[in-house]
Amino acid sequence: MKAAVIVFPGSNCDRDLAEGFRQAGFEVSMVWHKDTDLPKGVDVIGIPGGFSFGDYLRCGAIAAQSPICRAVVNYAHKGGHVLGFCNGFQVLCETGLLPGVLMRNAGLKFVCRQQTLRVETADSPFTNAYSKGDKIMVPIAHHDGNFSADADLLSRLRGEDRVAFSYVGNPNGSTGDIAGILSENRRVLGMMPHPERASEPAHGGTDGQGVFKSLTEVLALA
Amino acid sequence: MKARVHIMLKNGVLDPQGEAVRHALGTLGFNGVNGVRQGKVIELDLADGTTEASVKDMCEKLLANTVIESYTIELA
Q1: A161-218: per-residue pLDDT in tens?
Q2: Which end of chain A is more exposed for a tag (fewer CB within 10 A), N or C?
Q3: For the domain A2-221, what is the CATH superfamily, name and number?
Q4: Per-residue confidence band for B12, with pLDDT thresholds at 50, 70 and 90
Q5: Does any CB of chain B come closer than 8 Å to the CB of residue A104?
Q6: Domains and CATH numbers, chain B
Q7: What is the rounded CA–CA span in Å between residue A115 and residue A178?
Q8: Which of residues 5-34 of B touch A (CB under 8 A)?
Q9: What is the rounded distance in angstroms from the CA atom of residue A125 to the CA atom of residue A3?
């Protein structure tokens, strides 16, 4: 199983994300933002957290226009698996692969803490190792994590079972307590929390491993 | 030639930063500030002959996130 992690100037969770994939048995290649092609035979692409391009203009906006992101969008449109954590979620929203937008936290403060999440669906390549309703503890660390969706989008996401994770105790004002969402084909996941920071015992918890494990289940069957 | 692009959050989109500024103005004793909306201005230095349509394209593709932001273009 092969994973590719995209690296932008200002990414700071790229190596953590690579480690999360490796722990689950993936062979990982790091891909620079100026590259135009993804490595051959990649099974999943990870977009890491951080502050790509210094969050200039809007979080994720400039990264979303980088050469490699064109390849990521094409890959996703062909049915490829893509996940983005934190800044990666912001980038995915800016590319249009995921709907909605991440705005400044309602409390205006950077929030960095352990956060309880509820698994809202086990029906996805990223959550099948969990059960619906599971409560997991995963770190959050963001200033712009306030997921904003209008009433139409919210009811569409819920109606199509596309809310992957929600917050137990909303830390940032997100619409409907949403922490992570899936694309229409369920193969793109964006979430503000950091499962890669809860993927080995030294992290103090391993509740985030399930995201990577879920992928291995799906890819093993493919 | 120059173009100035004004970007504002659309009506109805909550603006917590604007709200914080409004609150701070009240603390300073400025009464009667009923609302503050914070946006941004981007000045573009452009080759002569650049069309407004082209600037609009820049706004749609990068400068504004039209899910939450609206923009106006001023050519000078």
Answers
A1: 999 999 999 999 999 999 999 999 999 999 999 999 999 999 999 999 999 999 999 9
A2: C
A3: Class I glutamine amidotransferase (GATase) domain (3.40.50.880)
A4: confident
A5: yes
A6: 2-75 (3.30.1280.10)
A7: 13
A8: 13-14, 16-17, 20
A9: 14
Report the mean per-residue pLDDT for chain A. Answer: 97
The nearest CA of chain B is from the CA of A61 a distance in Å of 7
Rounded to 5°, the CA angle B22-A151-A101 comes to: 65
Cα–Cα distance between A108 and A136 in angstroms, integer? 25
Which residues on A lie below 8 Å from B17 (Cβ)? 104, 108
The pLDDT, as a whole number, for residue B4 is: 98
Q: Tell me if chain B has a CB within 8 Å of the CB of A50.
A: no
**Taking 90 as the threshold, does the pLDDT of residue A42 lie above it?**
yes
CA distances from A160 to A93, A181, A193 (A): 18, 11, 22
In the annotation, is A160 catalytic? no
Rounded to a whole number of angstroms, the distance from the CA of A145 to the nearest CA of chain B is 13
Decide if pLDDT at A222 tops 80: no
